[in-house]
Amino acid sequence: MRIDIDRVSKTYQAGTGMKITALDSISLRVDSGEFICIVGPSGCGKSTLLKLIGGIEQPDAGAVRCDDVPVGAPSTDRGFIFQDYALFPWLTVRQNIAFGLTIKGCSRQERKLRIDEYLRFMGLTGAGSLYPGQLSGGMRQRVALARALCLRPKLLLMDEPFAALDVLLRQRLQEELVRIWQTERMTYLLVTHDVEEALFLADRIVIMSPHPGRIRSILPIKLARPRRRTSAEFIHLRQHIMQLLEVGTAEAREERTAALVLP
Amino acid sequence: MGVERQAQAVLPLGWKNAKKRKRATAYAVRTASVLLFLLAWHVLVHYNIQYPLQFGNLPKPLDILGAWRVDLMKQQYYNDILASVFRVAAGILLGLAFAVPLGLWIGLSPRASDLLFPNLELFRPIPLIAYLPVAMLLFTTIESSIIFITFVGAFFPILLCCRDAARQVPQSLVQAAHCLGCGPIRVVWKIYLPAMAPGIFTGLSVGIGASWMGVITGEMMSGQTGIGYATWQAYHLLDYNESIIGMFSIGLLGYASSALVRAVERTVIRWK
After folding, report:
1. What are the Cα distances from residue A231, in Å, to A200, A228, B76?
2. I need a labelling partner for B144 at 20 to 30 A (CA). Which of A26, A89, A210, B239 fits?
3. Chain B contact residues (CB < 8 Å to A)
4. How far apart are CA B218 and CA B88, in angstroms?
């Protein structure tokens, strides 16, 4: 799925009545089959951008188009992985994965096949009858992935999917995600504040800066896959992105102080 | 290594025994507490104690137990209980039918909250017994006015619990359902109601207690049947044994109905 983001802006009303510009005229084009990571410090509007593409929220100005169709409401073509996994706690793992399939009107037999396929694919066989409360963080994340992937979306949006996991598990799931992406070619958009994660996964990294949320730079990553986190190139690029992020944040801070001083 | 294995085998066994002994002591203490209460009651009546309260006027616990045994053989006793149980069940079902959708609506829409809540807050603090005159005017039969009182008793706790539960449904669950193709009406059935279920049960267990208070009030004031009517009628006929039997029967029925709610809750909410 191709995504065109055309001069999109979004402001929020803060509790004190102050307006916060989460996104300030953002434009971005994502090609079909690309793996894009959006990196930036908190407050740069990266999650908001993801929700606009998902259709969960609407922009104040500008437009988001997926395959030339303007995004209105959420659709099963665009899978969304939430930061807190958003599994339905009253449904078992199987029922959670079945949720979208049932609504779609899949036959019982096809549903069973599809669920079994994704349970196996995600390494969840045997966990089908457990409730989300009985699972570890890593397993919950995999259920969320299975629930979204079994609808065969053309685009997968992920909002800091591995933020709550420990380092080893995070690295393993990142490797798994690359494997999934390589088997089911579709467009991936992943938001993270972890530079290393972005470098490991992305074809292109979009670096954003906060207050107001803007795209600072877009960096194509030409490293060959599978990538090694310890290679000299990897470390060099990581350093480079860190610098870009720091400069971006510092500039935003200066702008804000200037705006405060001037009447 | 052999010793180690032995120690492992012995440790949980000893722990289990200690737990069992603890539970046995707890039961012994509870039984003794009830027996002690009955004994104190018996002694107070037997010696016709009139100060600080007129304990001497009460019937003796053993006489009551004897009369209760006779009652248990009579059809009338069960008819009264069934009449009251039916009224409570009807009030609870009506309460659920009205309070759950209203609570959901008030919880989700600030406009609905502004529109309805002031009126509801006006009625909520009114004790159930004070509804009785209005109930008598509104309904043609005594039966329906008593059911109305039990409905009012169930309605407000369920409403408030539902409103709070609806507000606490995580937005990410609703958004996730939308992303999985769930439309706005189906979200109510598939997300809001199951997510609110624990809150609804909290309201239900409070509401069923209030319903029992309502039904007894209604029956005492205006009924011709029911356990509340029987209790009050027996007092007027100077049959104090029956009054106290009625009182304890009401207590047991209230206890049984909250146990029933808890049992249903356990079967419905298996995921907690």
Report:
1. 11, 6, 88
2. B239
3. 170, 172-173, 175-182, 186, 190-191, 194-195, 197, 269-272
4. 11
The arrangement of strands across the sheet holding A214-220 comes to A78-81, A155-159, A187-192, A35-39, A204-209, A214-220
What gap in Å lies between CA A192 and CA A41, rounded to an integer?
A: 9
pLDDT confidence tier of residue A41, bands split at 50, 70 and 90: confident
Average pLDDT over residues B35-47: 95
Residue A198 Cα, gap to closest chain B Cα (Å): 24
- In the numeric block, which tokens belong to residue A204? 């292109």
DSSP secondary structure code for residue B188 in this structure: I
Tens-place pLDDT, residues B86-139: 999 999 999 999 999 999 999 999 999 999 989 999 999 999 999 999 999 999
User: What is the model's pLDDT at position B18?
Assistant: 86
Across A123-137, A241-255, B163-177, B219-233, least confident range:
A241-255
* Token pair listed for B104: 């959901």
B3 pLDDT exceeds 80? no
The answer to whether B150 touches B92, Cβ cutoff 8 Å, is: yes
Using the structure block, give the residue that is written with the tokens 């309460």: B95
Mean pLDDT of chain B: 92
Contact assessment for residue B219 and residue B133, using Cβ atoms and an 8 Å cutoff: no
Residues 198-227 of A with CB under 8 A from B: none
What torsion do the CA atoms of B172, B177, B181, B185 make, to the nearest 10 degrees? Answer: -110
- Of A204, A170, A175, the residue nearest A187 (C-alpha): A204
Residue B82 in tokens: 């069934």
Specify whether the CB–CB gap between A181 and A35 falls below 8 A: yes
Taking the CA atoms of A79, A85, A89 and A94 in sequence, report the sign of the dihedral they define.
Answer: positive
Q: Which residues of B touch A118 (CB under 8 A)?
A: none
Nearest to B153 by CA among B113, B120, B124, B121: B124
pTM of the model: 0.85
**Angle between the A137-149 and A108-121 helix axes, to the nearest 10 degrees?**
140
Q: What is the band of A19 on the pLDDT scale with cuts at 50, 70, 90?
A: confident
Candidates B176, B186, B191; nearest CB to A82: B176
Best CA proximity match to A52, nearest among A147, A157, A146, A141: A157
